[in-house]
Each structure stands twice: as structure tokens, then as C-alpha cells.
Write a structure and sequence with these properties.
heterotrimer; A alpha/beta (310); B alpha+beta (506); C mainly alpha (286); B: 506 residues; alpha+beta; Beta-lactamase Inhibitory Protein, Chain:B, domain 1; 3 domains; 4-stranded antiparallel β-sheet; 22% strand; elongated; C: 286 residues; mainly alpha; 74% helix; 0% strand; globular
């Protein structure tokens, strides 16, 4: 049974005297996983370690059972879109992708067909026969993505893939990610735009200073953070009445009334008790329209876990 | 099974790289390097053919007559015997020469505009070139309007204290260069009273070597002053000793030909001084020249720098371009990548430089007399061609592996390249054991014709030159293959450990 | 409706002179160069030969120290054009290595890292930039070439007196002018190769390769055509011929000063063209 996870086992990497990543242990399931963290946290290092471009000083990495020291097998199922902007001077978009596909053992016709398909997926067909060096930034980003997906890999490692893309292409690319994740592939990407990370990802990995601060589904991570009261937005008709009821509970730390008098922002220390309290309130006849978690998003997690840590 | 697919992968990598190696704009200078000797040989051949055409139109002389010209014969006598030359050029040659022997001691100073004076005074500033403190003047002659009348001859003379009684100032004005005025006073001077005010146009001074003494004893620095009243003196001449005189010779060259050879006669002032008879096309000599060029230029410079460019680009160039990671992201073992790239570089360089060597050899043969070429080819020609090409190819193999490894291991691979160049350059002067530690030694062993020694090398260096006996062909080939294998093994270790981290330092 | 509050005032105070601004580039380049270990080391090694020459001058001018030697040896030593020629030949090689070591680091990194737009978005013209880089290299080379040469000349004048100077001022002029030509040529080669290849490592090799290959080419032409005019193609030989004429030394057989000067001039022109075409802040790719 081939393991279906990307495993890091106590991986450390030194750059001279600087610690790049520090005893990182991860187990990434299939789906879309976002690596989130400040600049210099180690996101690119982790990605380079995954694909064998650099070697760990300590620990081991397993990509679906394969080691990055075995590029012959690993690179067949892995595609990496780096952040390095350079590309060979001689290459047109189409040539670049079809030539690299030749190394996989495909015949020329097959390679060209796959290359063309990848270019179509990323809407680069018009510029396919121009030199990459003449592309705009967004097009260069897309050609790197195309190169990563052309051989239909099982594991996609994408370093800031949405960087420099205009909104339409952004949306299309995100749709692609969802498509691939639905097919059971690994999509590991890094990003700074936290709202998007919220929308795209199934899992997140929060990294700071080379160490993994949190890992898992967003909701699960949030649930584990007990030090901070959770925030919920409650939409109801009789907001002040509901507020007074809630105040009686001792796990509630703060309640704020919205200006339209139709909603509340509630901060609670204990989500379990809060959910029971809200159920009682609803059953008691107060009309509760909606209960929405207000900080089960990466922004909040980032701020709690990484922002405070400075 | 796996090996075959890996081989196929290496071949694919090689094919991709070859496209770049052969056709990128940067590759053209490598072609230029490889073709330089060919082009020059080609033009030489063309020039020779044109020469032969023009010579045949002028008429040939008997071969015996060509050799009959003797040194000292006049030009007219030669023309009378051999007929009109087909090339006759005369021009006056000016040469600044340092005069030898007696002539070196004479300085001639033209006074323009002419000065009127009665007293002529010679001041010695630096009495000799070698530090001797004595001033020595053999004769001083003063000329006015009449160029042949020495106004100072036997005139009353004064001067600083003489070295001895027989070397007084009057000795410089007695018309006899065998005696001299000598003085080692602190302030050395010599003065003559012309008796009357004359117009002075020329002063001739004969220093020590005009009387046969050592040239180093000539006056190094002096000046000549003139006065009307023996009170106020005007400087006429600044003398720095006789350095160079303008020697004018009438030089004439005449070319004759007997169909196979060309004679160049050089005449100076009408008399034959030099006679050079060249073969119009000297196959033997050309082969020697080819051997010399192959070893000194082609192997040491062309292949060296060409392989430097080609193989350095394979890894270090990609690293600087920041495109190396694309190769590492391909599904191929690192060793396969190395093999593919090395193979590409090898194929490109062997084709370019092996082909270049073969082409040059072919051009060389093409220009010669077909009968001679036929004989040569049947005897040893094909073997020579083979070994030259092999030497060029193996040079690419050896140097290529070294530069590939250097590009992988070192940040600035130019330093070891410079060191290697220097090492190869001084190879002939090293002890024999160390000489075997170079690629060039084995390559030279493979060359079929030993290269002529560089005539321009100073004699001192020629003495120190101590080339080891060349290795056998088999030994040389094994040597190069061995060195290459070792270097490639190091390269494999390096590439396995290699990490991609692009820094901004170019 | 937009209301613009004109509260922003440009800087009205004094600004530094043009040359101060010009010298910013060389100053920082020199600082960087001397931080590498090899550069000061090479410069120190390059001073060994001038030191030997200085000792030689001292010995020559104090003949009493040489009393013991044979007359022939004494006549062999004298400070004339030949002495300075040998001095120049050795120092020229050091200048070449220095240029090959430091020249590439001047322009290649700027081109490779796309830094030229940063320079030219300031009030710095392209010609200013090029001249600043040229000056950087030229001054460095001067420090190992005509500066020690002039010092040696001055030392000789000091010891031999103004009379010697009167007769031999040509030598001083020849040293300075000859080295100026060589320094200019070498700097231009280093800059051109640096601008052409954009890679520090390769361009250093290209500098050396240029001189070696041209030397080899001239040798080949000479030997194949059995002539001597091929020497004009070798920049070293051509420079040396010009030095001989300036110093008043008998030259070796070969092309004359005019031909050599013409060849050197055309080399410099070619190099200047390469620099002009390659030193652009943007690259248009079709």
C-alpha cells in the first residue's frame, strides 16, 4: 500500500550558521495545503527540500514513499513551480515545456501534445511561440505553472503560484487547484494572501522562524488554540436580549452589539459550552438567524500564532 | 533494462544541450578559434598561387643562375647575367643607429642660425658614461662659411688643469686625433680663441673613442658656448653624447624565380648583401609549421579556451543564469545528467576542433604540389592526419572533463584555468616526473611530427628547456583516459552533493 | 473637487559637485575590490620588480659599490631606455593580471543582476557610468605601472642630477605615455569582456584569452606567411614597439610605429563600440 502522504520527519537544514528549518515534522495528506508564514520563515526551504534541490542536514523526507534523493522516480510524480524568475534564453514557451517533457521518455509527438494541453489550461496558447524572456511577469508565472503540471504529476509543489496574476486568471487557477485536489493529488502551495488561503486550502501549515507553529485544517487549528477566546458573530432579531442572556454565562468574555442592532460579536473561552448555550437560547424562542465563526480564518490564526510571537 | 532507458535519457539531455552548444550566438567565437589556422593557411596558399602566376608571367631563369649570385656583386652585373627581375624595388632606408668604433666618438653639431663668435668654450658636465672622472677630448673643430676650413686649428687654447703635461688643451686643436686633452678638474672646460669674430656654422667634437679608446669614456653630457668678448657667453650646443645617427642606405630588392624557387636578392648601396632562396611551396617546411602551430596554438590556446568556454557553460553558466534547477527537477539521476551534459560538450568540441584540425590539414595538402601530396599520403600522410585528429579529440576529452569539474566545484573557475594554463606553459622546464602530470604532455606525445623549438625564445630559456621523452601512443591515450576518468568521478561526487541556492553574487 | 495642499518643498540646499558624484562609483568599487584578498596581494607582488629596479638604480649611481666588478659588467649597467623598457614589460604583465582579476567584477554583476536601471534612474548618464568604471580600473592599473615608473625616474634624476634629466627627459615621458596607452587598452578589454559576457568568471578568462589568442594569431601569421608584419596584430608586441620608439630603444624587426599605433587604435575603437552596444539598461528580446 503506497502511503499517500508527504512526510517530514525531524528535518533540519542549516545555511552555514543560520538555521533554515528546525526539527520540522509534518504529515501532509492529499488536497490543497498552504504553507503560510512571514518572509524568511522557511517556506521555500521546505519546498526545495521536498523536491531534492537541497538536502536536509538532519531527518528524512518521504514523498508518497519516495525519497527526494531519488529524482529519477520522484520527479515523475512531482511538479515544482519555483519562484525563480529566470528561464533559458533560447526557449520559447512551447519549446521549453515540450523539451523538458522529452526527458520523461515521451515521444516527441506525445510531449508536444501534453505541452499544448498544459498551455491551454493556463491560457498561454497565443504566446506559446514567443521567447519566454519576452513574456510579462504574469505570463512567466503561468509558464512556470504550465511546466509544473505538464506531466500530470501526483504532487504539485507551487511557490507563490498566484503572484502577479490578474484577477481573472487568478480565479481560473484557483479553480484548477480545486480540480486537481478533487482528483486526489497533493497540492502544496505557499502564499501571503491570507484571504485566498482561507478560500483555497483544505489544510494549512503555519511556519515561523523555521519551525512549524501549526498544522492541519483551519477549524481544527483554531479549536486547539485555547488561550484566545473564540469569536462568533450571532445574527438575531432581539440582539440586546440575547446579549443579556449570554452575559450570564461565565465562559463569555465579551459581547459587542452591532450598529444595526441585529447582530452580536461574541467572544467565548469555551466553544463547546458556547454552542450549547446558543442552542438553549434558540430553543427558548429567541430568533437566531445565524451563528458564524468570526476568526476561523487564517488571518486570525496568523495574528495569534505568528504575529504575537514577534 | 534500466540502463538502456538511462542511456536514452542521457542522449536526450545531450541532444538538448547540443542544440544550444552548436547554435547559440555565444558559440561562434569557438568556431572562429578552431578555424583560424585553416583560414590563415588558406590565404597563404592563395597568396602562393597568385605569386606563382605572377612569377610565371615574368619569365623564369635557370636554377643554376639563381645560385650564381655572389656577395658583393653589383646590381647591374646581376641584371646582366640573369635578365630583368620581375620585382625591382629601391628605396632609401633611414635607420637610427648607434655608431660603433671610431664613429661613435664623433659628435657633429650644426649651428642654425649661425652665430658670430670669437671664443668657443666647451664645458664638460658629465665626463664619461661609466663614471670615469676624466674629461677626454681628442679634437674640436669649428667651421664657418667654408665647410672644409677648421677655424680652430692651431689656435691658442686654454682649459682646466690637464691630467698630465702631454694632455694640455692645445692637443685638442692640433688636427691630430691620436693625442688628446684630458682633465679631471672639478670644473672641466676647454676654450679656444679664434682670433677674429667668425660666423660659426658647425662644431665637430671628437671624444675618447674617436681615438680608439673605450666608448664608455666618451663625454656623456657637455655644452658648447660662444662669446664675442670673452665675458658674456651664449650657449650654442647642448650635447648628450653621440647616441644615434641617421644612417641612410640605398636599399634595393630584386626577385627572380626559376619556377620552383624564388630568389630574393638584397642590395645595399649597389652591392649584393643578402641572398635568400625560398621554395615557392615547401611541403616539408609547411608540415613542420603545421606541427608547430598545432602544438603551440591549437592545443594550448584554441582547444584550451574553446573547451573552457563550452564546458564551463554547461554547469557554471546555468548556475549563473539561474536555470540549473530545471535540470535537477527532471526525472533523471544526477549522474545521468552529468553524462548527458559532458557528452554534449564532448560531441560539440570534438566536431569543432577535430574537424578544424582535419580541415586545416586538408587545406595544407590542397595547396601543395599534387605529386608530392600523393607520395606523402601513401607513405605517412593518412597516419599523420589520423593522429592529429585523435590528439585534438583527446584534448577535448581531457580539458573538457577538467573544466566541467572545475565549473561544478568552484565559484570562480577561472583561477584554476589560469593556473592550468601556466602549468602547461612551463611544462617543458619542470622535472620529468612532474611533466607527466599534465594533459598537454600526453597530447604532444600523440602528435606525429615533433614541433620545432620556438626560435623566438631567448637562449637562456632554451637551455633550461628539458622536455621529457614522449610517451607511447597507447600510454598517452591511457594517460588521458585515466585523468579524465578520475576527474569525472570527482565530478559525480560533486553533483550528488550539489544544492541549488542562487545567491545574488554574479 | 480635489484640493491640492502645496505643502511639499523640494530640497533647496547645496548639492555636491559633479566630480564628487562621479567619484561615488569608483570609491565604492575600490572598497569592494580591496576587500577581496587577492587584489592587495597581487598589488604587493607587483611592487617587487620596481623595488628590484630601484636597488639597481641605487647601485648604478653609486659606482664605488661596483668597483669590484669587471669593466664589462659595469658597462652593462646603465639607466637608459633599455632599462625602462624591461621595467615596463614586466609591469605590463602584472597590470594585465590585475585587470583580469578586478575588471569583471565591475560591470558583469550589474548587468547580470539587472542593476543598471537602478543606476540610470538617478541623474547618471550612461557615459558617466562607463567613464567611472574605466577610471576605476585605470587608476588601479596606474598604481602598478606608471606611478612606480615615475618614482623610479625621479629617483634616478635625484641621484644623477639635472644634467642627466636634461638628456633623458624622454624616458620619463615615454614611461608615462607608454603605460597610459597600455592601461587604457587593458581597461577597455576588461570592460568590454565584462559587458559582453555578463558572467564574472567567464569575462576574466576572456580578458586573458584576448591577449593570448591575439599573440598566438600574430605568431601563426608570421610563421605561415614567413613575414614579420603579423606582429602588429599582437597588442603586446604593438605596445612594445610604441614604447621602443618613445624610449629611444632599437626595436626588433617588424612593423613600424605607425602600423602598430593604427592597430592599437582600431582595437580600442572596436572595444569602445562593444561597450557602447552592450551597456544598456534594458534588453529587447524579439
Amino acid at each position: 500500500m503506497i502511503p499517500q502522504t508527504v512526510e517530514f520527519d525531524e528535518v533540519s537544514k542549516f545555511y552555514g550558521e543560520v538555521l533554515g528549518v528546525n526539527h520540522v515534522s509534518l504529515s501532509i495528506p492529499p488536497g490543497i495545503t498552504s504553507l503560510v508564514g512571514p518572509n524568511g520563515a522557511g517556506k521555500t526551504t521546505l519546498m526545495n527540500l521536498m523536491t531534492g534541490l537541497i538536502h536536509p542536514d538532519d531527518g528524512s523526507i518521504r514523498m508518497r514513499g519516495l525519497s527526494p534523493r531519488d529524482p529519477e522516480n520522484l520527479m515523475r510524480i512531482t511538479g515544482y513551480a519555483t519562484q525563480y524568475d529566470a528561464s533559458p534564453r533560447w526557449a520559447t514557451g512551447f519549446n521549453f515545456i515540450s523539451t523538458s517533457l522529452l526527458l520523461f521518455g515521451y515521444s516527441r509527438a506525445e510531449a508536444e501534445e501534453k505541452a499544448w494541453r498544459a498551455l491551454q489550461q493556463l491560457r498561454l496558447t497565443e504566446a506559446a511561440h514567443r521567447k519566454i524572456a519576452a513574456y510579462s511577469k504574469g505570463m512567466r508565472q503561468r509558464i512556470r505553472l504550465a511546466q509544473a503540471i505538464a506531466h500530470e504529476p501526483e504532487i504539485l509543489v507551487l511557490d507563490e503560484p498566484l503572484n502577479g496574476l490578474d484577477p481573472l486568471v487568478r480565479a481560473e487557477t484557483i479553480a484548477l487547484f480545486h480540480q486537481w485536489a478533487a482528483q486526489g493529488r497533493h497540492v502544496v502551495l505557499s502564499s501571503h494572501v491570507l484571504q485566498e488561503v482561507d478560500v483555497i486550502s483544505d489544510q494549512i501549515v503555519l511556519i515561523s522562524n523555521g519551525m512549524v507553529v501549526a498544522e492541519g485544517k483551519i477549524r481544527n487549528v483554531r479549536e486547539e488554540i485555547h488561550e484566545r477566546p473564540s469569536q462568533f458573530i450571532v445574527r438575531c432579531r432581539n440582539a440586546s436580549r440575547v446579549a443579556s442572556v449570554l452575559f450570564k454565562e461565565d465562559h463569555i468574555t465579551e459581547v459587542r452589539l452591532n450598529e444595526d442592532r441585529m447582530g452580536l460579536l461574541v467572544m467565548t473561552r469555551d466553544r463547546e459550552q458556547f454552542s450549547r448555550a446558543i442552542s438553549r437560547i434558540a430553543l427558548d424562542g429567541f430568533g437566531i438567524d445565524a451563528v458564524i465563526p468570526a476568526d476561523e480564518n487564517v488571518d486570525a490564526l496568523y495574528e495569534y500564532l505568528i504575529g504575537e510571537g514577534r | 533494462m534500466e540502463y538502456r532507458s538511462r542511456l536514452k535519457q542521457a542522449w536526450t539531455i545531450a541532444k538538448i544541450e547540443l542544440g544550444r552548444a552548436f547554435f547559440s550566438k555565444r558559440a561562434f567565437w569557438v568556431y572562429g578559434l578552431a578555424l583560424l589556422p585553416t583560414i590563415i593557411f588558406f590565404f597563404h596558399g592563395v597568396q602562393m598561387k597568385i605569386r606563382r602566376q605572377s612569377l610565371s608571367s615574368g619569365g623564369f631563369v635557370q636554377p643554376v643562375l639563381l645560385e650564381s649570385a655572389r656577395e658583393g656583386e653589383t646590381a647591374e652585373a646581376v641584371i646582366q647575367r640573369l635578365g630583368k627581375p620581375h620585382w625591382d624595388f629601391e628605396y632609401p632606408r633611414h635607420r637610427m643607429v648607434s655608431p660603433q668604433g671610431k664613429a661613435s666618438g664623433i659628435t657633429i653639431h650644426n649651428i642654425a642660425p649661425a652665430l658670430e663668435a670669437r671664443y668657443i668654450r666647451l664645458n664638460i658636465r658629465v665626463p664619461s658614461y661609466n663614471g670615469d672622472p676624466n674629461a677626454r677630448i681628442r679634437e674640436m673643430e669649428v667651421y664657418g662659411g667654408n665647410d672644409s676650413v677648421n677655424l680652430a686649428l692651431s689656435r691658442p687654447a686654454t682649459g682646466s688643469a690637464p691630467c698630465s703635461a702631454a694632455e694640455g688643451p692645445e692637443k685638442a686643436f692640433n688636427g691630430n686625433a691620436n693625442d688628446r686633452w684630458c682633465s679631471h678638474a672639478v670644473d672641466k672646460y676647454l676654450q679656444v680663441d679664434l682670433g677674429d669674430i667668425h660666423e660659426i656654422k658647425r662644431v665637430v667634437i671628437k671624444h675618447a673613442s674617436a681615438g680608439g679608446e673605450d666608448e664608455q669614456l666618451n663625454t656623456a653630457f657637455f655644452d658648447v658656448q660662444a662669446s664675442i668678448d670673452n665675458k658674456r657667453f651664449v650657449r650654442m650646443v647642448n650635447g648628450t653624447g653621440s647616441r644615434f645617427i641617421d644612417e641612410i642606405t640605398a636599399v634595393r630588392t630584386m626577385h627572380y624565380s626559376d619556377g620552383r624557387r624564388e630568389a630574393v636578392f638584397g642590395f645595399e648601396d649597389g652591392k649584393l648583401v643578402s641572398k635568400k632562396i625560398n621554395m615557392l611551396m615547401n611541403f616539408e617546411e609547411d608540415r613542420q609549421i603545421f606541427a608547430g602551430i598545432f602544438q603551440y596554438f591549437y592545443l594550448r590556446l584554441a582547444i584550451f579556451f574553446g573547451c573552457l568556454g563550452i564546458f564551463m557553460n554547461l554547469f557554471r553558466g546555468e548556475m549563473l543564469d539561474r536555470t540549473l534547477h530545471f535540470w535537477f527537477l527532471a526525472p533523471a539521476r544526477r549522474e545521468v545528467l552529468l553524462a548527458g551534459k559532458y557528452g554534449a560538450g564532448l560531441i560539440a568540441s570534438i566536431v569543432i576542433f577535430g574537424g578544424g584540425a582535419l580541415l586545416c590539414f586538408g587545406v595544407l595538402l590542397l595547396m601543395q604540389n599534387p605529386a608530392e601530396v600523393q607520395a606523402y599520403w601513401q607513405a605517412a600522410g593518412w597516419a599523420h592526419a589520423f593522429w592529429y585528429t585523435t590528439a585534438a579529440a583527446l584534448g577535448c576529452v581531457g580539458y573538457g572533463s577538467v573544466f566541467l569539474a572545475a565549473g561544478l566545484l568552484l565559484r570562480n573557475p577561472i583561477l584554476p584555468a589560469a593556473v592550468l594554463l601556466g602549468w602547461e606553459a612551463i611544462n617543458g622546464f619542470l622535472p620529468v616526473m612532474l611533466q607527466k602530470l599534465s594533459v598537454l604532455y600526453y597530447l604532444q606525445s600523440l602528435c606525429p611530427v615533433p614541433a620545432p623549438v620556438d626560435k623566438n625564445m631567448p637562449a637562456l630559456l632554451q637551455l633550461l628547456l628539458n622536455p621529457a621523452a614522449p610517451a607511447s601512443h597507447a600510454g598517452a591515450i591511457c594517460g588521458i583516459i585515466g585523468v579524465t576518468a578520475l576527474v569525472l568521478w570527482v565530478a559525480v561526487l560533486a553533483i550528488r552533493r550539489m544544492e541549488v541556492s542562487y545567491s545574488t553574487e554574479a | 473637487m480635489a484640493v491640492y495642499k502645496r505643502g511639499y518643498q523640494r530640497y533647496q540646499g547645496p548639492i555636491t559637485s559633479y566630480w564628487t558624484r562621479f567619484m561615488v562609483l569608483p570609491r565604492f568599487a575600490w572598497r569592494r575590490m580591496f576587500q577581496q584578498r587577492l587584489v592587495p596581494l597581487l598589488m604587493v607582488i607587483a611592487m617587487i620588480w620596481p623595488l628590484l629596479c630601484a636597488i639597481f638604480i641605487y647601485l648604478t649611481n653609486h659606482a664605488e659599490l661596483l668597483k669590484g666588478f669587471s669593466k664589462q659588467f659595469q658597462s652593462f649597467i646603465s639607466i637608459n631606455g633599455n632599462f625602462f623598457l624591461v621595467f615596463m614589460i614586466v609591469q605590463a604583465d602584472f597590470a594585465l593580471f590585475l585587470a583580469a582579476l578586478t575588471g569583471p567584477g565591475l560591470i558583469a554583476p550589474d548587468l547580470a543582476n539587472n542593476a543598471l536601471p537602478l543606476y540610470f534612474s538617478r541623474p547618471l548618464r550612461r557615459s558617466d557610468y562607463a567613464f567611472a568604471r574605466l577610471a576605476t580600473l585605470f587608476v588601479l592599473i596606474s598604481l602598478v605601472t606608471w606611478v612606480p615608473g615615475i618614482l623610479l625616474f625621479g629617483m634616478q634624476v635625484g641621484m644623477a642630477g639635472s644634467d642627466w634629466l636634461h638628456g633623458n627627459w624622454r624616458l620619463g615621458f615615454g614611461v608615462v605615455a607608454g603605460f597610459a596607452i597600455w592601461g587604457l587598452l587593458v581597461s577597455l578589454v576588461a570592460m568590454a569582456s565584462s559587458a559582453y559576457t555578463k558572467m564574472k568568471a567567464v569575462s576574466g578568462g576572456l580578458v586573458l584569452g584576448f591577449f593570448f589568442i591575439m599573440g598566438g594569431l600574430s605568431g601563426m601569421v608570421n610563421v605561415i606567411f614567413r613575414v614579420t608584419w603579423g606582429n602588429a596584430l599582437s597588442p603586446q608586441w604593438a605596445s612594445r614597439r610604441i614604447w621602443c620608439a618613445m624610449l629611444g630603444v632599437d626595436p626588433n624587426e617588424g612593423p613600424g610605429v605607425a602600423a602598430c599605433a593604427l592597430v592599437l587604435l582600431s582595437f580600442m575603437l572596436l572595444l569602445a563600440i562593444v561597450i557602447e552596444r552592450k551597456l544598456r539598461p534594458i534588453e529587447v528580446i524579439t
